[in-house]
What we know:
The complex is a heterotetramer. Chain A is an all-alpha fold. Chain A has one domain. Chain A has 15 helices and 2 strands. By secondary structure, chain B is mostly helical. Chain B has a two-stranded antiparallel ribbon with strand order 1-2. The model of chain B has no long low-confidence stretch (mean pLDDT 87).
Amino acid sequence: MIGKAAAGGVVETAVILIVAAALWFAPAFAGDYWLQIGFRALIYLSLAEGWNLMAGSAGLVSLGASCFVGLGAYVVFGLLNKLDMPPPLALALAAAAGGALAAFVSPALFRLRGLYFTVGTLALAELLRLTMINVSLFGGATGIFLAQDPPDLPALFHCALVVAFLASLAITFCARTRASVILRAVRDDEDAAAQMGVRPFRVKLAAFALASAISAMAGGVQAIKLGAIEPYGIFGLQWSIDVLSMAIIGGVGLRLGPLVGVIFVIALGELLADYPEAHVAIAGVILIVLIRFAPRGVVGLVAYQKLASRRPATA
Amino acid sequence: MPDIGVALSTIASGVLLGGILALTALGLSIVLGVMRLVNLAHGEFLVLGAYAGLFFLQFTGVDPLLGLPVIALLLAAFAIPLYRWLLQPLADRGPEAQMMTMFAVSIILQNLFVLAFSADTRSIARDYAALPLTLGPITVPLIYLIGFAISVIAILIVNWVVSSTAFGRDLRASAADAEAAATMGVDVKSVRMLTFALGVACAGMGGALIGAAFQFGPSSGGAYLLNSLAVVVLGGLGNVLGTLAGGLVLGALQSLGGLTLGDGYRDLVGMALFLAVLAFRPDGFLARGRP
Amino acid sequence: MSEDARPLLEVSGLVKRYGGLVAIDRVDLKVPPGAIAGVIGPNGAGKSTLIGLIGGALTPSEGTIRLDGEDVTRLPASERARAGIGRTYQIPRPFLDMTVEENLEVAQYSIAPFIGAAAARKERAALLERAGLADASSLPARALPLLRRKRLEVARALALKPRVLLLDEVGAGLVDSEISELIALIRSISDHRTAIVIVEHVIRVVRECCGRSLVLNFGKMLIEGPTSEILANDQVAAVYLGTGGARTRADDKAAVPPEGAIHVRAPVEARTTLAALIAPPAASAKAPLLELQNVAAGYGQARVLRGVSMRLQEGEAIAVLGANGAGKTTLARVIAGAVAPTAGALRIEGRDVAGLAPHRIAALGVAHCMEGRRIFPTLSVEENLLVTARNGDATQVRERLQAAYDLFPILAERKMQIGTSLSGGQQQMLAIARALMARPRLVIFDEISLGLAPVIMDKLYDALALLKNARMTLILIEQDVDRALALADRAYVLEHGVFALSGAAREIAKDPRLRHVYIGDAD
Amino acid sequence: MRHPTKTCLAAAIAAASFGLSQAHADEIVIGASLPLSGPLAGFGSFQQWGYKRAVDEVNKAGGISVGGKKEMVKLIIRDDKTDPNATAANTETLISRDHVVAMLGSCTPALVNAGALVAERAKKPLVTGCDPLEAFKSVRKWKWVWDIFFDEPDLASVELKAVADLGAKTNMKIALWHDNGPDGQVVGGQIWPNVAKQFGYEVVQNAEFPVDNTQFTSIIGEAKSKEAEVVLVDAITPQAVAIRKQMAASGYTPKVLNIEKGAEPVQFAEALGKLADGVLVGGYWDPSFPYPGAADLAKAFESETKLSSSQHIADSYAAAQVLLDGIAAAGSTDPEKINAALAKTDKTYVVGPVKFDENHTAKLPVVSLQWQGGKTVVVWPKSAKTGDLLFPVP
C-alpha cells in the first residue's frame, strides 16, 4: 500500500517535472495570447492547489485567498520599490510573509472549526484590505506603482511557471507521502487524530502556512505583471471566489481537481468574453449546474463514470 | 477632539444604526444557524428587498415601511422556489455545495439587477428619511430611530417564532438532528424551506429599510454581507436576540471608531472586532461559557 | 509486578467540574506496569469522563495525572498520546474515509515519522492479525460494522505502542464468543511494561481481566480493591448491579435505583393513565397493522436487508433479535421511513408506504425510539416531548404530557432543562416518552438498554410492560435476548439480512438455533 | 490519474478551438474593456454607447481607408466587472487574441491605468476619456496612451470661482470632504486647500474617507459644529447620495454644497429627489455647448435609449472619434503610425478642441453645473450659462 503510494509519488513528481520542463520552452513557439492565458492559468493553478491542500486534506475551507494574494503583492512592491531587491528574492520573502501571517492569525482562526474558519478568512482579507485603504503609507486607495519596468511576458511566464511548479511539488509531497495520512486524519476527526498523537494545530498550521506562502508568491508575480496595485483589485473578493469555484468545479480533494478547474474556468471566461452583458450570469448558471450534477467536480464526474462502466454495481 | 454634542450624536446614531444592522443580519443569522449555510447571496437579497421597496412605492404609492409585511411576503415567495430547486437537492452534500450555489445566485442576481434596473444608485426618497431629530445636544437622523424601532419589533417577532412556536421547535429540532427530527414526524424539508424563506423575508425587510435610510445599487450587496456576518458572529450563530445585541455593539463600536480615527475606520473597527470575537468568543460574546 | 514498582499511571485528587456539576470528584487511581485496572459503575457515574481526563481530551479542574512519575496533567491529548497513553472511544471514531490500514498509519507516523516502510507494514499486519481485521486492511473504515470498528479502535490505539492503554466499553454489544476473543486480546496486550485501564459494563471482561477495580458512583470513588472482592461487595451490587441483572430476583427492593426515576403504578391504573399516549385500536382491523414482504434495503452498494417478511397485528409485541451487523437497526429505519426499501412491499394497514418520507410514516402512527436516544440538545426536556405531539389539539397535548410525566416523574422535575443535560438513563426515558407523545399505533424501540446499568434496564422494561398491558403494538430491537423474549409475544431473529428464525417468543427462547445464530456465525 | 488527464486534454483542446477564431483580414479591429457590471457599470454603459456610435458612424460612411483600401472598423468590448485585474486581463486578451490595432480606455483612474499599463507595455495606442489628467500623469511618462479629460485643478477651482464671481455671500468657513481614491486625494488633499486659501476661505475641516464608506455621520457632525457654510465633496455617486441624505438627516444644510464626481450623473438626482436641488458639480460637457454635434449627440442618446444623457457619452464619443481619425490620418494599421498620427491630433470635437500636450493629455474646459428641479443647469461661466445660481442651498 505505502509502496504503491510512494511509487505514485515518484511517477507524479516525474510527470510534473517533465510538464514543467516542456512548458519552460513554451514562449519560444506559443503566441502572446497563449502565454497570457498560460500565465493566468499558472497563477490560478498555484492558488487552487493551495486551496485544495487546505480544504481537501486538512478540511479548512478558505475564502481568504485574496488576503494572501494582496499581501504578497504589497510585500513584493515594497521590496522592489524601496530596496531595489532582485525579484526572486522579493518573491521568496513574500512567501515567507504569507506563511508568517498565516502563523500569526492561526491561533485565532483555528479555534474555529468548519464554517467559522471560512468566515474568519473572509474577515481577515477584508481587514487587510481596509488597512491598506486607510493607511497612506501603503498608498491608500490609489495603491502603489512599480517603479521599475516589469519584465517581458516570457520572463513573467517563467516566473509563474516556477511558482506553479513549486506549488505542485509541495502538493504532491502532501498527497503522496505519509504526510497525507496525517492530513486526512486531521480533516476526518481532529480529536481522534490527537488521541493518535497527531498534533492537529501544527498539521493545520503547516497546511495553512504552505498554502498561504504559495498564494502570496503567486500574488507577487501577478502584481509584478500588473505594474500597479491598489487594494480594491488585489484584495478583491473575486480572487477568493475564483479560486473556490475552480477547486469546486475541478473536484475538491482530488489531485487533478485544481488543474481541471482552472482550465475549465479560464476557458469559460474566454468563451463568454464576447457576451459581456450576460457573461457573469451565464457563468453563474454553469456553476450551479456543475455543483448540482457533478458533486465531485469535473474530475470526479469523469472518474466515477469510468469506474461505473468498468464494474457495475458491486463492491 | 470633537465636541461633546458631535460625540454623543455619533454614538447615539451608531447604536440606532446598529439596530438596523441587526435587522439586515437577521436573515443571514437564521439561515446560518439552522441550515449551516453561509448565504453568500444574502447581500443581494437585501438589495432585492430595497428594489422591492422602491417599486412598491412607485406602483402603489404606499410607504414602503408600511408595506414591509408585503415586501417580506414577496421575498419569501421568491425564496421558496429558489430553495426548492437549487438548495434542497444539495441538502446532503456538505456546506460548500450550497454556499457555492448561493454565490452563483448572487452573481446572477447582480447581473440581473444591472440588466433590469440599470447600474444606477437608487434611494427610496421619503421626506422622513431626511429629517433630523434633536434632543438637547444630540441630533440623530429620524429614520435611524424609525429603523431601529422596526428592527427591534421584527427581531422580537422572529425570536418569538423561533423560541415559542411549534414551527420554531421543529426548526430547532431539525437544526440539531435532522434525521431524528424527521423520524419524530417533523417534515424537515418543509421546515428548511420555510426557514430559508423566513431568512430571505427578513433580508427583504432589512433591504427596504436600507433603501429608505441609505442608498443602494446592484452591487451594494457585498458590503452588507460582510457587515451582517460580523453582526451574526458577534451575536452568536442562530441566536436571534444575540443578533440584536451584536448589531448594537457593532454599531456603537463602529461609530466610536469613526469618531476617534475617522469615518474610514468604521469598517476596519468592525472587522477587527469580528476577528477578535471569532478568536476569543466563537459562540458570540453573549454566549455563556460552553460546558 | 514487584511491590516497589512505582505506578506507571498515577491519578490523584482528580476533579472535573462543568459549571456547578461535578462529573469527577477526587478520584485516585494507581496502575503499576503489567496491571489491568477495571473501572465500573452505573451509567452517568463519570467513567467515560475519567477516560477523557486521562487521555487528554478533557482538562481536569483539579488534581494531577502522572505518567511514569512525570506530570502530564496540562499536556494536550496529542502530547499524552506521544508520551504513551493510548485510548479508545466508547463510540468508535475511526477515520471513516481512510482504509483500515491507513487508520493505523496515522498513529505510526505521528509517533515515528521516519519509520522504515517495510517495518511499519509488518507492524500493521501483526496488529491487524491480532485484532482480527487482517482481511479488511484495505477496506475503508466506513465499510466496517460497529463491532469491527471497535476492533479497529483497539488496533489503532495499539499502533501507538502505548505504555498505558485506556479501553472504553470495548465489550458493549458483543456476544459471548466475541467477549472471549476480546478477553484473549486484552490478555495478550498486557505485558510487564504496559498498564491497562478498562471501563466496562460487561462484568465478565472485568472479572476475567482486571486484578483490581475501582467503582465510581456519581463521580465519586465508591470503593477500590481486588476485583473479586469488589464484585462480591453488597454495596457495589446495590448501586451498580441492582439485583444482579436477573429478572427473577426483581422482588429485591433493597436496590436503590440510582436514577430514582420510574414510577410504576398498578397495571389497571396504568392503563387509564397511559390512555392519552396510546392510539385506540382501529375500528375494523382488516389488514395487519404492519406488513413487510420481501423487503430489501441497504446503504449505497452495501445490501443490509436481503428480503425480510413479517406481519404484525394490532396489540402484538415482537422482538427482533440478531448479532451485531445483522440488520436490526436498518430494519427499524426502513419501517420508520428513514431508509427506503430497494425492493419488496412495506404496508401499514394494507397501504403501501414504501418510499414515503419519515414524517409521513410518523403521521400514520409509527413512532421510532431511535438507537442512541437522539435527544435534541438545543431543546428543553418538555420541548423534546412536544416535537412529536403533532396530531392533537392543545388539550390532548396537555393530557399526553401529563401521562408522560406520570410514567417518568423525573422528566417532570427536569422539564425546563436542556435535554442532553440528563444522565444516560434519564435521556433514554425521555426518548421513550418522546416516542409515545405522538400517541402512536406502533412503537419501535431500538436498543433502549444499550449501555445502561441493569437496574435502569429493569425500570425501562417495567415501563414497556405497562405499555404492552395497555395493548400498545411494540417492536423491540434488542441485544439483550432474555429481556426481549421475556416481554415479546413473538420474535424474529435476523442473520445476514434475512430472518433465520421466527416464532413464538417462548419457542425461540428454547430453540438451540438461537444460540447458534449468535455464537456460530456471529461477527 | 489517467482519465482526468484526458479531461484536461479535452478541455485544453476546447480552449484552443475558440482561441483560433480570428478577425477577418479586411477589418480594422479596435477594442475596449469597460465596466459593464460592478459598481461602475453606470459609466460603462454610457461609454459603450459613445464608443459604438463613433464606430457606427465611420462604418456607415464606408469605413476607413487603410493602404488605399476602405476597411470597416470592428469594435470589441469586454466587461471588466469594475475590477482592475480584469481590465488588465481583458486588455491583454484584446491585444494577443483579438489582435486589435488600438484601444479605447475604461473609466476611472484605477481601471484606465490598469489597462493603459498593459497597452504601454505591448506598444499599442490607447485613447481614453475617463481619467482625470493629474491622476493620469502621475502614473508614468506615457508613450502610447492618450487622455482627453478635465484637469483636476480646473475642476477643483471652478465652484469657488463661480461662487465668488456670482457674488454669493458666506461666512467663508469651508469644509473639504474627499475619498482617498487617486483623484480624491489629488483634488481634496492637495488642490482644494490651496484654492480655498486663494479665495480667502478658512478651512475648518479636511476629512478623508475610503471609497466604500457609507456612514458619514461623524464627518457631517464635525462640519456642522464648526459652522462651515461651504462644503466641497469629492465622492462617487453612492457616497454622494449617502452624504446628501445624511446631511439632511443631521439637520445640516450649508449655503454652498458642491459634490464633485458623484453628483454628476442623473441617478444622483433621481435617487435624491428634492434633496438634489442646489448641489453644484463641475462639468466638462453639456448638450448646450457650442461644439459641432453636441445637441444632436444628447438627442440621439435619449431617443435611442430613453435614458437621460450624461457627459460620459461625449467624452467617450470624442475619444473614439480621435482614435478613428488617428487611424485614418495614419492610413495604416501599424501601431507606430497610428500613435504618431494621434500625437498630431488638432481638431474641434463634440467636447471642444482636442490637442495633446507633451504629457499626452488634452484638457477639456470646465463649467459649473447646478441641480435644479431634477436637471442640471450651467450656472457659470456667464458665457455658457443656461440658468441662475440657486443660493443658498434650499
